[in-house]
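Query protein
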Amino acid sequence: MVAKSRKRTVILLLCLFAEATVLGGVLGWRGGSHLPKALPKPRAFDFEVAYTASGFAPPVLRVPLGSRVAFKNLTRSPLWLGADPFLTHSDYPDLDARRNYGQGEVFVFRFDRSGTFGYNNDRKAGVHGTIQVADPDSLDSELDKTPDEQLDIRDGLFALMDPSRPLSLYRVIDAIGAQPDLALSCHGLAHDLGHHAYELWGFSASINLSDPDRKDGSVQEFCAGGYVHGVLEEASLHMPDFLAHPETLCADGPNRSSCLHGLGHAFMYDNGRNVERSLEACRNLPGRGNSYPCFEGVWMEFFLSPPRGSTPDSQGWDPEHPLEPCRPVADDAKAACYLYSSFGYLHAHYLDYSGAVSLCTSGLGKIDEQFCLKGIGITMTGHFKAQQLERTEPFVAHLTRWEKAAFYQGVFGYARFSGVPDDDLAATARRMTSDGDLVIAALAADPR
């Protein structure tokens, strides 16, 4: 019995030894070896930005959507990282470290929306960086508001815009200002410049750009507001909270109307070119008188910016009957529609001013006809490059005095908006054959 027990014990020990040998082979144990090293931890971030005494490095970083970016403080000063603008972070509210990070500490943030986002150190004003978040599957708009004959000019202006220096936009402003004809016909091109500026610098850095040392330091009036309109359009594609409180975007001041017009473009982008939803968004803007310039932006986008590759039957209006979309529109937005319907007609029927005048005087109500004729007048400023505007007179020679007044309100109103001095406009009026007194009276009745 004892012999059998010893035999079973030996067999059991042999089995245990064999099991241990197999297990050791799997785990890598060897006689006298140490325990295995721990597996390396997965990397906690995809890209890194260092905060140094000279600022953020790199100052501009392009990453794919969903990337985790580590911001490491290499200084002895505190770093409280947050999105632009300084202290409020409204461009990307989630991008907020919510505390100071000391020397050697790392704040990691995952970028889950596409677009360009400026950021700063809330503990030190004036220190900025930029993250460009690319989404390969994004259906972002193409830069497509520049007339074909200005595309090479636009691309040359893009080359003047430094990704790490927003103030380089003033090189663009100077280049346009050096070409008077271009300065009076740069509105569409400036939309594209605004799109590009957002892509380089983000919303706040682009739209609030100013240089106090320059007379033209504000960008709000650049190319009759076209630049600001482009920034607003592009921001609407990337910033979900962007239009939640649109009244905060257009500060009180002389350029408020242009900003509100830009919101109309942005609403159209945000609503997939749905006119009714966009008009309703304009109506919901708080404050008296804010809706109409917004309506103008909606209708300008509708008539002058059809989707690329669209055909006449897919862009929402018929070039042969541009007044039809305006007829069923509510009264508050109808005038703005007729204003831009004449733009649409002339865009589809190049230089057919006689046809446009006939269109506007074909049985519309008085107010609607007035705005339609005003729209034609606005296009005249660009056609004549704000020079020899007295040559507009023959186009309306057969109209009544009040119809002419509506037309000239567009001609000279837009010339003013484009920076033509009143003295030059008065000199133009004195060269007119029969309508000069009408124009001078209109200028005097509406001082700058």
